[in-house]
């Protein structure tokens, strides 16, 4: 794998993890939102990631070995279909006739763990990019 392929792979990872962090932060911010623009409780959002091969020109050397370099991207953002928690609160403005309010299907603990995981993955990709930069610099120093 050449320098640019490795750089693009790590760069695609950074972009995907940034989206993951943004969605987890949005989920946490809306954990108590009982009425959205559609009049329903907020639905937890999750990124759906997919592997994407790079152009043939970048992967010719590795394709001969049977493994084309690939990156990752967010294919789409999906709403979690699980139902929200129902809580008895007859004085709440969004309570139904029986006095129950449907809260969003956001688990704050799950979202914090998701944020921590995304942050560590982001750091790993950033470290890989720094290592690539150091390797390129040392290669240039050798030629001097």
TrEMBL record:
What is the protein's name according to its record? Answer: Flagellar basal-body rod protein FlgC
Tell me the keywords, alphabetical order: Bacterial flagellum, Cell projection, Cilium, Flagellum
As for subcellular location, the record says: Bacterial flagellum basal body
The top of its lineage is:
Bacteria, Pseudomonadati, Myxococcota, Myxococcia, Myxococcales
Subunit relationships = The basal body constitutes a major portion of the flagellar organelle and consists of four rings (L,P,S, and M) mounted on a central rod. The rod consists of about 26 subunits of FlgG in the distal portion, and FlgB, FlgC and FlgF are thought to build up the proximal portion of the rod with about 6 subunits each.
Residue ranges constituting the Flagellar basal body rod protein N-terminal domain according to the UniProt record: 8-34
Family of the protein in this entry: Belongs to the flagella basal body rod proteins family.
Matching Pfam families, A to Z? Flg_bb_rod, Flg_bbr_C
Q: Name the gene that codes for it.
A: flgC
- Per the record's keyword annotation, is Transmembrane helix included, yes or no? no
User: Looking at the keywords, is Amino-acid biosynthesis present?
Assistant: no
Reading the lineage from the top rank, the first entry is Bacteria
- Principal place of residence: other
Annotated Flagellar basal-body/hook protein C-terminal domain ranges read 98-141
């Amino acid at each position: 794998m050449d320098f640019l392929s490795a750089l693009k792979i790590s760069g695609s990872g950074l972009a995907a993890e940034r989206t993951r962090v943004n969605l987890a932060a949005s989920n946490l911010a809306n954990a108590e939102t009982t009425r959205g623009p559609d009049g329903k409780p907020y639905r937890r959002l999750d990124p759906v990631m997919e592997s994407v091969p790079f152009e043939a020109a970048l992967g010719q050397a590795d394709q001969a070995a049977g493994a084309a370099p690939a990156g990752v991207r967010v294919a789409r953002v999906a709403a979690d279909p699980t139902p929200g928690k129902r809580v008895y609160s007859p004085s709440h403005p969004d309570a139904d006739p029986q006095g129950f309010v449907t809260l969003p299907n956001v688990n704050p603990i799950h979202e914090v763990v998701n944020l921590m995981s995304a942050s560590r993955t982001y750091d790993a990709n950033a470290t890989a990019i720094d290592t690539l930069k150091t390797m390129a610099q040392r290669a240039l120093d050798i030629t001097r």
